[in-house]
Design a protein that fits this description.
By secondary structure, this protein is mostly beta strands. It is built from 1 helix and 11 strands; from the N terminus they run ββββββββββαβ. Strands 1, 2, 4, 8, 10 and 11 form a 6-stranded antiparallel β-sheet that branches. Strands 3, 5, 6, 7 and 9 form a 5-stranded antiparallel β-sheet that branches.
Length: about 150
């Protein structure tokens, strides 16, 4: 019986084919009411056009300043927002401080070209801080799953 290596054609659907991860440790803040990049990004080159990419984002902690303020984070594949266009993938509301958050989204990029996933944030107009050095790592993990 021949052993099948991860990444070989013919892996059963649902098999984990590869994992790519990245983190940043520099602080980020914004008061933008439009999505702006946080600088956290990771590329992956899918092995098959039928693969799914599970994107997991973990924010060690963030702070939304201002009474009644809110902020949302989302993930872009290239220039396409793969979260909700206005609500993103995670919400921090009402003067939250040092709140760790994790979200995930399953994407179908339908490509075997290198694809970059980037975390973006927007606010209700109040300054929002994602302070990695104070609150912990800010990470993105991409997992390719056989389709």
């Amino acid at each position: 019986m021949a052993l099948t290596k991860i990444g070989d054609a013919g892996m059963p659907a649902g098999s984990l084919l590869q994992v790519q991860s990245n983190f940043i440790t520099s602080d980020f803040n914004t008061a933008s009411t439009s999505f702006v990049t946080t600088g956290l990004a990771q590329a992956i080159t899918p092995l098959s056009t039928s693969s799914k990419i599970l994107c997991i984002v973990s924010i060690g902690g963030w702070y939304v300043g201002g009474s009644g303020g809110s902020a949302v984070a989302t993930v872009y594949r290239g220039s396409t927002n793969i979260g909700n266009g206005s609500s993103g993938l995670m919400l921090i509301d009402n003067d939250a401080l040092n709140i760790p958050c994790t979200t995930q989204v399953l994407d179908s990029p339908s490509t075997t070209s290198a694809t970059t996933y980037t975390v973006y944030v927007k606010t209700s107009g109040v300054t929002t801080y994602v302070s990695y050095s104070s609150y912990g790592h800010f990470t993105i993990t991409l997992m390719e799953i056989a389709g």
